[in-house]
Each structure stands twice: as C-alpha cells, then as structure tokens.
Amino acid sequence: MNKRITQNIFEGINPVLNEILLQEGRWQDFHSTFLVHLRDNLKASLIDKGYRVGLEESIQVQRLFDKPNTYYSDLLISQSPDVAAIGQAIISAPQSVATQTLPIPEAINLQTNLDIVALVIRRREDNKPITWIELLSPTNKLPNQAFYDYQIKREYVIHADTCFIEFDFIHTQPPMYPKLNAYKHGGHPFHMSLIIPRPDVYRGTITLYHFGIADHIPNITIPLDGDDIHLLNLNAVYQKAFIDSLYGLELDYENLDLSTYLEHDRQYIIKRVAEALHRLNR
Q1: Beta-sheet pairing, 190-196 with 128-135
Q2: Nearest Cα to Cα of residue 18 among 231, 187, 217, 218
C-alpha cells in the first residue's frame, strides 16, 4: 500500500512535488495556489499599514498605473420567465448553417502560455504600485520564447520605479541571470531576486538569494513605500500552501522519479524519504 504523508517531509521546497509538477505540466496549479497563499499572508500583515495586496493579470503590465477596469460581455444571454413560449417561436424559424469551423486558438489567436497572475503591493491612498512579485513559470524561462517577453515586462516595471521580486523554483531550466550556473552544471536549484530601482534603475541594486534541496526557503525583506519594509517568512507560506492544498496526499514516496536531480541531491531525497517512511511505520 502506498504511504501518503500530509506534512511536507522536507525543510523547504518539496523536490518530489516539484518533479511531478514540472514533469506532468501541472505547474500552473501550484503557481496559482502559492500566490493566493502569499497574497493572504501579506494582506494580513500590510492592510493596517496603508497597503493593498492583490493578484493582477501579469500580461497587463502596460496598464500598471491605471485603475482596475471592469469588463462586461458584449452580449449577455439570460433566461426570462417566459422563455418557454419564446423558445417555441425560435424553433420554427429557419436554422442558420455554419460556413466554417475553426479551432479556437487559430480563430482568436489564443495565447495559452502566459502567466495568469502576479502579486502587486499598492499604496492604498493613490493606488500607486510599490512592489511587484512574480513566481516564475516554465514559460518564463529559456529555452521558451516567452522568456524575452517576460524580460521586457520586468524592465518596464523597474523603470516605473516599482520594486520587483522574483521567485524561481524551477530547477530544470537555466537561471534567469546568465552569470549563474545552471543546476545541471552544479549551480543551486532554486533562486530568488530582489530588484530595488532606487533612486533610479541605473543606481539601484539587485539582491540574489540561492538555496538547495536541503535548505529552508530564505526569508526576504520586502521594500515598501519610503523606508518601510516587511520581513517575509516565505518558507512558512510554502509549507501552509503545501498542507492546505493536500499536495502531500498526491505524492507516492515509495515510487520516486528523481531523474532531474543531481546525484548528491537524489541521495539526500532518498534518505529523507526513507526516514519519513520509517517514522510512519513505527
């Protein structure tokens, strides 16, 4: 019988879950789950300090300073109380004949590889964006062409005097910064970056964090308005998201696929799993 463990048996990122999410194309589920938990954590801490924290469409960076828009459908089809009588008349009318049928993506240029959301901290009094937070998806990283669109977006945000935080938990693709070694070449599997474009983008700083399979996710200091800061326990956010979303119940620790990890990390994962299963069987 497969052994399921609700708690995360690793100190930080669960590498078994990561492997499944990336290999099975399920990253978007985690992406949304993690950002919702992060939003709730930050909102609880910052709401009394004059900030709004919300999920916003990542592709709408060009409207960074606009007020949120409400969109309505061009035509709303609803059912009235007398719909049955109307329906009888419609049935007797001549039926239209379709002249062409196309796949939806072809017909409307549907873009399926864009991130759904980013997290934005805004100053409540004037809605000014203060800090933009991204959790990278595989499509944001090389060799995907969307990498270049993402780079342009990031540059736009920091030129708008908005701090930019980036979480990169994807060990199977190269880091976002070319001077960093890829994991498969001995570099760290996970990265975080904090860009503070103050006093401007040319005199600002970037702080990089790197961590491994056996490490906690580091705390990160989030810059707010002026000299305000907030120390975020990101590891606690991850662990809560893991438990609340029942990811542990999806993991089969007795049948591991660790093909994307380096040998020393594979050995650590196997050892950690064996210890957890031993405790479970006692």
Answers
A1: unpaired
A2: 217
SS (H, E, C) 100-112: CCCCHHHHHCCCC
Distances (CA, A) of 190 to 95, 124, 221, 225: 58, 33, 18, 28
Contacts of 198 (CB under 8 A, 6+ apart): 161, 163, 204, 223
As a whole number of angstroms, the longest Cα–Cα distance in the chain is 73
Between CA 46 and CA 279 the distance in angstroms is 39
Q: Which two tokens stand for residue 181?
A: 């070694």
Using 50, 70 and 90 to split pLDDT, how confident is the model at 105? low
Would you say residue 263 has pLDDT above 50?
Answer: yes
How buried is residue 114: exposed, middle or buried, by Cβ count under 10 Å (0-12/13-18/19+)? Answer: middle
In tens, the pLDDT along 237-261 reads: 999 999 999 999 999 999 999 999 9
- Measure the CA–CA gap between 228 and 9, rounded to whole angstroms: 35
Joined tokens for residue 9: 């048996």
Determine which helix (DSSP H) or strand (DSSP E) holds 121, and give its type and residue range: strand 117-123
Domain boundaries, given as residue ranges, for the chain: 15-62+108-281
Radius of gyration of the chain from its Cα atoms, rounded to whole angstroms = 23
How many other CB atoms sit within 10 Å of the CB of residue 277? 15
Say if strands 205-211 and 190-196 run parallel, antiparallel, or are unpaired.
Answer: antiparallel
